[in-house]
Amino acid sequence: MKKNEMDICFDSRSENESFARMVVAGFITYLDPTLEEMGDIKTAVSEAVTNCVIHGYNNGPGKIHMKCRIEDKTLQIEISDEGVGIENIRQAMEPLYTTKPDLERSGMGFAFMEAFMDGLHVESVPGKGTKVVMEKLLGVCINEEAI
Length: 147
Description:
By secondary structure, the chain is α+β, with helices and mostly antiparallel strands.
């Protein structure tokens, strides 16, 4: 099995959401993903990073960690924070549920991650942070020697 990995850490700032999207897009480019695959992945990353900024750190300072791993044609993305954590993961993952209605949050972040990716796992400890792990099986790799 051929694999490729990357690990970055960046400040919890809303402007870094687009940075995270572009990093993942650049990381998977050699697999020649379809436009749909690329869009799905970028949307899921946006939602996960935004959750860290808005909910994990309440728009305050903190660090967001993003790890990506490609093994064969499966992309795994792990996005984590060391913020407030989630009391009830099941409730937080319900469509339209939000703890920030005053900020006009739609409560669809986890639903989008689940819809656009092939796998989603959420771990959280109140007061210690949250880790979101997403997986996506990508189409045929054109340049297998690059992996």
